[in-house]
Amino acid sequence: MQITRGLRRREVNDASAGSIAHLPHTQQNRNAPPKAKPLHGEKLCKRLTAHRSAAVQIELAQQPGVALAVLMYRMIPVLFNDVYGQSYIDHAVRIDVHTSRDALVSNAVDMADSTAWKALEGERAKWSRMLPKRTDELLAWLLQQDADVMSNLFAFCVAATVDGINAVDRPHVVNEVANTLEVDLTRY
User: Fold this and answer.
1) Helix boundaries (H) for 80-165
2) CA angle 137, 140, 142 (to 5 degrees)
3) What does the pLDDT look like over 3-42, one tens digit per residue?
């Protein structure tokens, strides 16, 4: 048997200068690079990154200065798009806020046993007891608080929005926050 690379069948040469769209299905698959198999499965990736997110959240909740910087880091490119380019969709003075609490629990069935989760839930319970029960009283209550209460509540609120859940093995933007906080995942 002799293998000669680079030769093509006559009907392929005649079909629009060898366009890949005209190749038979088997020929297309033969030329396509093999799809790389991920190192970890989607479910495991989501579970592990949910735990990482919880750890980053509790660390961020304990550092109001970093929480402020993280929020500003999100806002500044939107507000100064002439400097940073059009990297975000235009919004009319709007920041969307979403909690990742339900996503953490749904992606890691063992989240309730996590040290980070227990600390987060403790913080959530503390703030729930302190906050007024009615929304129409919230602004007045906030205006009466001292700087320490405001900065700690602010840090908790920013931390609760952190979402580093990922379905695949690849770097995630939450890694920059985790590195800034020097999160030691072995603690969690």
Assistant:
1) 81-84, 101-107, 115-130, 138-144, 147-159
2) 105
3) 666 666 666 555 555 444 444 555 555 666 777 777 778 8
